[in-house]
Design goal:
heterodimer, A: alpha/beta, ABC transporter transmembrane region fold, 2 domains, 5-stranded parallel sheet, 19 helices, 11 strands, elongated, B: ABC transporter transmembrane region fold, Rossmann fold, 5-stranded antiparallel sheet, 18 helices
Chain lengths: ~550, ~550
């Protein structure tokens, strides 16, 4: 409930005017509908009475019939406005929420990002946010407007008919609606949440399947994976069926509530006041018929509550506060690690322990060592991607992990071992890090990493790449991410295995490009190629300082 | 209907026709209860008016109870109708979903459709069939019968009322068709936008670490915000049309009802003498019926948009159906291993632009596949696993052609080590051994011991999609263990030592050579000169023109 409330407040703050307009129009629609039916009923019954009494000629027909026409047209117009206003406000709120969420994700801690599986985040962002349209369209607006319409209806009936009819009709509708809402939500909450969970895992499983289908087939595990999807789908269907049954029963109960209200409107008035004018009885009856509209939408509220509640909880949990301000870095570009200890997990052996390193500005440093000895860890620590458990990692004397993200990234660029490309053109990918570069600069850097020829027949800078950079070979992708980093002209460039998968000649050219294009910059290269390491001023062998060996 | 292409939507729903028909008839029956209820209410009100006269007619309380009983009947009928229709929709959706997932699983390469687009098609897009089946068909049945019944009742009592309804009625389908047609176009565009939006999001999220390291978060978010805003604007355009059509309908309905009300009123006052003579009871009865003359048409109009969405989906499904991508050989199921000596013969094989030299790979051979990047080394390995269909030539394994019948059994004899780790979301234990039991010796052979020691949850660790949480060398060792688990007769390894430090590369090579020493055929695509030097046969591929 509290997550839903937080979300409602958020949406209210963003789209107050549009929401208010929608809510007022919604009440207006219900009120005009009740007035229209009530007036029509009264008009005909009163006309019949006047006709029977022979007073047809003196009966004022023009004002009621004009009012009937006015209400009919006005209600239609109000309804159009209400629908547009509420949907527009809801979509605006959802768009804002989506962007806020993506922005929050781009600021999440690195550790979280690394473990983040795109398929799951996608579920969260699109499914959860989509589910939240019910918060306004199916919860806040129908309940609020329905309640307001019942109150207005009660007042109107008490004034035009009598208090007992007003109480009987609106009381039945109000209590019946509330009971259906309460009981229905209680019953539907769990299956709705579970069905949605299964729908999300179906999505994730399908994405997994399509991504890894070649491997799964080669391993003879495709059939088993399909079975797993089928089992999940069966469970989801069973839950959806249960949910549908609950929703239908809620609909049934609401219809019966409407029936009882109508019956009371008909039978109760007569028994109560004894001798009520039949035209007034007609008002009670017809208004009761119209006010059913105030509770009918609750059926949908019952069906969607569980899902929106779960979605709200997850979405609210992910909305993090704004980033820290952009204060400049200290001018000194010396990197230093002192007594650094790092473990991937508190229970595991340290990768680094008591590790010291000083890298003065402009140094070209090579890191070598067996896989798992900490080459990538040293780079990640220097880039502030992870924090040391003990010791200091500093840039110009300030702890790297405490520096402001934006200025740090302007100064220091890390190209991790597994770098990702995005869907779009080669130029889009290059501009990801340097959006103001002109095409000539981009071409120069492509030339430097020897990609010009490889891309020449495919469209050069405009070469389209598929999802995650599909369409390039491993070596081409590698060179493209290095080129992307070079365009940033960083003071400090950290490269994790920049030449893997490249032919020796091309590898040498790429490393040359890095060193030539960034004169005076600090360049740290983790590699196990002797050829790469030979180009460096200094090489540190992590195997010689590995904590496991001398501890 | 044009006979050039059968209506894809109709074909889609053919299997559940009976259930849809039953549901629609029940829904119609429920709607036909209302005229009886209206007659009851009219009789009761008329009785109040006639009080004091010789035959007062229906007393209020019995009328109220009768009314309530009819409400129960109506609600129950509609409850049953909805149950039938839900069933039908559920079956169609589940059936199509299974078909999409099964075929996509066996598709060789995505032809333009990314994982996100396929997941969207099999997921939320298919769900648009639900509202169509559950709302459009019953609304159609009600629209075909209820207005006719009410019209007949109206003409029976007063031809003026009948004429008003008759005139207002036919205009409605006309407007509906025009607007429905526009909405079909708009909703197809909207659906297309939804898929690319989702793909864009998956793509950007997959690159989040890099985006962050390049300090491009703000830019990517701004781009995404622009796309999201564009989607919102497009959605609003669809809704504006959708709402406009129902507003036009409501307008007609409201004017029709208002005219009936005014005529009845004037008539009862005796101010109008034409159009039929009615008493109070008939007047009230007709007024109560008038809104329900329009209601089924309004329901149909609301469902018209479901129909538009369902048709857009059916078209997309038909396109998907028509694509017929190349499928893998066999089904990808676990099969009994193909018997016989695992000899491989390549003769005249062409795979797209890649020409494979003829070769015979004897059991136990050690084969290096060489060639510059992009020459087709990975393609050849996939073809040897029955995961590519040669355009020309044949691949024979164990003395028989590698085809749909033999592929699964052949793969049961293969060990597969792809270049990049693409692990499904599962614990390492399952990634390595599938549903089989995990032999601890494998872990030692693949040098996984130190890796597992580092991971707090050991074999129960769930690595990320592309092996996140594992280093490149660690992921490669997991793939090695997975390959060893198959106890292969033939190993296909794509760049098994790339991205590895010398120590890990040595371990991986050693494990491969140990297998070879035990008689396993080794087919390795690699740039690594040390590894290639240890092979005793070469298949050299040339650069593509």
């Amino acid at each position: 409930m509290s997550a839903l409330m937080t979300l409602l407040r958020l949406i209210w703050r963003d789209q107050r005017r549009a929401l208010l307009r929608g809510a007022l129009l919604a009440v207006l629609v219900l009120a005009m509908g009740a007035a229209l039916l009530g007036l029509s009923g009264w008009f005909i019954t009163a006309a019949a009475m006047a006709g029977l009494a022979g007073g047809g000629a003196v009966f004022d027909v023009f004002r009621p019939s004009a009012a009937v026409r006015f209400l009919a047209l006005g209600r239609t117009a109000a309804r159009y406005g209400e629908r547009l206003a509420t949907h527009d406000a809801t979509l605006r709120a959802l768009t804002g929420l989506r962007v806020r969420l993506l922005a929050a994700r781009t600021r999440a801690p690195f550790a979280e990002l690394a473990r983040l599986r795109a398929a799951e985040v996608l579920n969260r962002l699109s499914a959860d946010v989509d589910a939240l349209d019910s918060v306004t369209l199916r919860l806040a607006l129908p309940v609020g407007a329905g309640l307001a319409a019942l109150v207005l209806g009660a007042a109107g009936l008490a004034w035009l008919v009598d208090a007992r009819t007003a109480l009987a009709v609106t009381g039945t509708l109000g209590l019946g609606g509330a009971a259906v809402l309460w009981l229905g939500v209680r019953a539907a909450r769990a299956p709705a949440r579970l069905a949605e969970m299964h729908a999300q895992s179906l999505r994730r499983d399908v994405i997994d399947l399509v991504t890894a289908r070649t491997d799964l087939a080669a391993l003879g595990r495709l059939e088993a994976h399909l079975d797993q999807i089928a089992t999940g789908e069966d469970r989801r269907r069973a839950l959806a069926r249960r949910l549908d049954r609950i929703e239908r029963r809620a609909g049934l109960a609401l219809s019966l509530t409407g029936g009882v209200a109508l019956a009371l409107g008909l039978g109760g008035t007569r028994a109560g006041a004894g001798g009520l004018d039949p035209a007034r009885v007609a008002i009670g009856l017809f208004v009761a018929l119209a006010l059913f509209e105030a509770i009918a939408p609750l059926r949908r509220t019952v069906g969607s509550y569980g899902r929106m509640e779960a979605a709200a909880r997850r979405v609210v949990a992910q909305l993090t506060p704004a980033p820290r301000p952009d204060t400049p870095l200290p001018p000194d570009r010396t990197l230093r690690m002192q007594g650094v200890r790092f473990r991937h997990h508190p229970d595991s052996a340290p990768v680094l322990d008591g590790f010291d390193l000083t890298v003065p500005p402009g140094t070209r440093l090579g890191l070598k060592g067996t896989s798992g000895r900490g080459k990538s860890t040293v780079l990640a620590l220097l880039a502030g991607q992870i924090r040391p458990e003990a010791g200091q990692v500093t840039l110009g004397g300030d702890a790297v992990a405490e520096l402001d993200e934006a200025p740090l990234r302007r100064t220091l660029t890390l190209v991790p071992q597994r770098s990702a490309l995005i869907q779009g053109s080669v130029a889009d990918n290059l501009r990801l890090g340097a959006d103001r570069c002109d095409d000539d600069t981009l071409r120069q850097v492509l030339d430097a990493v020897r990609l010009t020829d490889a891309l020449a027949t495919r469209g050069g800078l405009g070469t389209p790449l598929g999802a995650r950079g599909a369409g390039l070979s491993g070596g081409e992708s590698r060179r493209l991410v290095v080129a992307r980093a070079l365009l940033r002209q960083p003071d400090i460039l950290l490269l994790d295995e920049p030449t893997e998968g490249l032919d020796p000649a091309i590898a040498a050219a790429v490393l040359n490009a890095v060193l030539d294009r960034l004169p005076g910059a600090t360049v740290i290269v983790a590699s196990h190629r002797a050829q790469d390491l030979a180009r460096m001023d200094r090489v540190i062998d992590l195997d010689l300082s590995a904590p496991g060996d001398n501890a | 209907m044009s006979d050039s292409r059968p209506d894809p939507l109709r074909a889609l729903l053919a299997p559940v026709r009976t259930a849809v028909l039953q549901g629609s008839i029940l829904s119609l029956a429920s709607a036909l209860v209302w005229p009886i209820q209206a007659a009851l209410v009219a009789a009761a009100l008329a009785a109040l008016l006639a009080e004091g006269e010789p035959s007062p007619g229906l007393a209020p309380w019995p009328a109220a109870l009768g009314l309530l009983a009819l409400f129960v009947l109506r609600a129950l009928l509609s409850h049953m109708a909805e149950a039938r229709l839900f069933d039908a929709a559920d079956r169609v959706v589940a059936d199509r979903r299974a078909a999409i997932v099964t075929r996509e699983a066996r598709t060789l390469r995505g032809d333009g459709a990314g994982p996100g687009a396929i997941a969207t098609l099999a997921g939320e897009k298919l769900e648009t069939l639900g509202p169509y089946v559950q709302r459009y068909y019953p609304a159609m049945a009600r629209s075909a019968v209820v207005p006719v019944v009410i019209l007949a009742l109206a003409f029976w009592h007063a031809w003026a009322v009948g004429t008003v309804l008759l005139l207002a009625g036919p205009l409605i389908p006309l407007f509906m068709a025009l607007i429905g047609w526009a909405a079909h176009e708009a909703s197809a565009r909207h659906l297309a936008g939804l898929a690319s939006m989702t793909d864009l999001l998956v793509d950007r999220l997959a690159a989040l670490v890099d985006i962050r390291l390049l300090d491009a978060g703000a830019r990517v978010t701004a781009d995404y915000a622009a796309s999201a805003e564009d989607l919102r604007a497009r959605t609003m355009r669809v809704l504006r049309i959708a709402f406009l059509s129902s507003t036009v309908l409501e307008l007609f309905a409201a004017l029709g009802v208002a005219m009936v009300a005014v005529w009845v009123g004037f008539s009862l006052l005796g101010l109008i003498a034409w159009g039929g003579s009615i008493d109070a009871r008939t007047g009230i009865f007709l007024l109560l019926l008038a809104p329900d003359y329009f209601q089924p048409l309004r329901d149909l109009s609301a469902a018209w948009h479901d129909r538009a969405a369902a048709r857009a989906l059916a078209d997309e499904l038909a396109d998907w159906q028509a694509r017929t991508p190349a499928l893998i050989l066999g089904t990808g199921a676990l099969a009994a291993p193909l018997p016989g000596a695992p000899e491989i013969r390549l003769s005249g094989v062409t795979l797209g632009a890649v020409t494979i030299p003829d070769a015979v790979i004897a059991p136990g051979a050690r084969v290096g596949v060489t060639g510059p990047s992009g020459a087709g080394k990975s393609t050849l390995l996939r073809a040897l696993a029955g995961l590519e269909r040669p355009d020309l030539g044949t691949i024979a394994v164990c003395g028989r052609p590698l085809d749909d019948a033999s592929a699964d059994a052949w793969r049961a004899r293969l060990g597969w080590m792809p270049q990049a780790p693409l692990f499904p979301q599962a614990p390492l234990r399952t990634i390595i051994a599938g549903r089989g039991a995990l032999d601890p010796d494998l872990l030692a052979m693949a040098a996984l011991g130190p890796v597992l020691a580092r991971l707090p949850q050991g074999l129960d660790t769930v690595p990320g999609e592309t092996g996140a949480g594992l280093s490149g060398g660690e992921a490669r060792r997991v793939m090695l263990a997975r390959m060893l688990h198959a106890r292969p007769a033939v190993v296909l390894a794509d760049e098994p030592t790339a991205d590895l430090d010398p120590e890990t590369a040595r371990q991986v090579s050693a494990a491969l050579m140990r297998l070879a020493a035990g008689g396993t055929t080794l087919i390795v695509a690699s740039h690594d000169p040390d590894l290639i030097a240890r092979m005793d046969q070469r298949i050299a591929l040339e650069a593509r023109p």
